[in-house]
Amino acid sequence: MTTPSARPVPPPPPPPPPPPASPVARVVEPVVEPALTASDENGTGPDDDATPLAAQAGSTRGLRARWAGVPLTARLVGIISSLLAIGLIAAGVLAGTLLYRTLIQQVDDKLVTEGLWLANQAGTTEPGRNLPTDYYGQFTTASGETQVMFAPRPDTLKAYGTPQFPELTATQAAERAGEPFTVSSSRSGERWRAIVYPARTTDGQDAVVAVALPLDDVQDTVTAMAGVLVASGLVILLVGALTGRWAVRRSLRPLREIETTAEAFAAGDFSQRVPTAPTSTEVGRLGAALNGMLAQIEQAFAVRTASEARMRRFVADASHELRTPLATIRGYGELYRMGALREPEQLADTMQRIESSATRMGGLVQDLLSLARLDERRPMRSAPVDLTVLAADAVSDLHALDPTRRTRLLPLLDGAGSGPVVVPGDEARLRQVVANLVGNVVQHTPAGTPVEIAVGMTSAADGTRAGVVEVRDHGPGIDPQHAARVFERFYRVDASRGRDSGGAGLGMAIVAAIVDAHAGQVGLEQTPGGGTTVRVTLPAVAHGPAGYDDAS
């Protein structure tokens, strides 16, 4: 082929000589080695490396701290807006790219069709005839002669400039035949889409035909489309942010109600509760959990308040009870110090009264100590205890205290046989229970009032068995309004604090505490015919001691 010889193409520059082996090693080693040595000797290398890392870590912590201080509503709206913006940008870029490719494809189709036709007509049609309106055609011979075959209108050339075709040989044009490509323009910022075909002149010389179309319409369309996408995207983003803010605030309204409820609860209104919501939602489950927690807190505060009230009453009552014997001892001591007790009979009576007050005070302190130990839930000894034996001993003690009383030991149910009633427990404590009940009867019923102690077994519906002790008196009885409080500490039916009205009001409280420590129950009932019955129920053991069964 003669085209390359007719228009010689400058040969490509010779490749540079191969670099010497390991040029990097020779260049880097002298530079890096002294640097490392200097840093090692001066000790500044690690600090220089650590400084940017420390600054970056501090910046990250600062961003996290600022982000943690942003309200949840702003966070969610910001995240929603950011995701919406990313989606709109991605959709806009994708739409613009597809539009640009579609328009370029349309231009390429026109170039292929018209360019092929022009290539076929290049050797037979004189230049300048049948010129397309917007096409620019150029005919280049092998000798380098260039001739414009056709061109757009002058105003079009003024607006778009002329395409800058690359210098191609016929062989190169044959290789790129039918493949459109983009070329620059003589006017800055404008581009043309071109296509080349090999051709032959009438005298048989090789030539190249180049046809181009301006891309200004494509660029204008893509730019207009980008403007529409940006404007619509901003509107969509604004509407989405406002809608998202409204939706987030509406969704977080239950959290604000929870906040309001918590503030009111913290202010002291323990009746406040979170408005209920369906438990199928996260907020509903959170509200239900918070309501349960608030109910437990309210109950705990109520228990603590009641406990504090009982403690204050307990301290006041204990102080009152201790004040009387202490005042007595102090008064008689002052009399003795002043020399008012001159007769032996007076001195003996005074010592007897001091001893009586000290005994009373010691008994009160012992009762308080017993209650304190029971409140501590200290483990007690547990062994089989026969309630029948305890009741029989109590009958004997009661007969010794008041021989005028008619005292009987009875079975729990009329007509039932008597026998051992065994329960697990601390025998000393259970004896104290029966002794306190008997002493209470002696103290609060008239002399000669009949007393009955009934012992027996009962069975519940679930098959569990319990031992029962009932202390029945036929005295005046207890008014129902006092019956529910007789087991409170320092509570006495007789509000008088005189020594003749009874003890300090701790006997029944000790009974209730001991029975509760044995997982039992104690209560008051009206005795048929008048009087009061105290019923103590204790869980029974499965089997009694060797030789008999509790069913007997």
From TrEMBL:
It comes from the Bacteria. Pfam families: HAMP (PF00672), HATPase_c (PF02518), HisKA (PF00512). InterPro entries: HAMP_dom (IPR003660), HATPase_C_sf (IPR036890), HATPase_dom (IPR003594), His_kinase_dom (IPR005467), HisK_dim/P_dom (IPR003661), HisK_dim/P_sf (IPR036097), Sig_transdc_His_kin-like_C (IPR004358), TCS_sensor_his_kinase (IPR050428). Residues 317-542 form the Histidine kinase domain. The keyword Kinase applies. GO terms for molecular function: calcium ion binding; phosphorelay sensor kinase activity. Gene3D superfamilies: 1.10.287.130, 6.10.340.10, Histidine kinase-like ATPase, C-terminal domain. One of its GO terms (cellular component) is plasma membrane. This is histidine kinase. It comes from Cellulomonas composti.
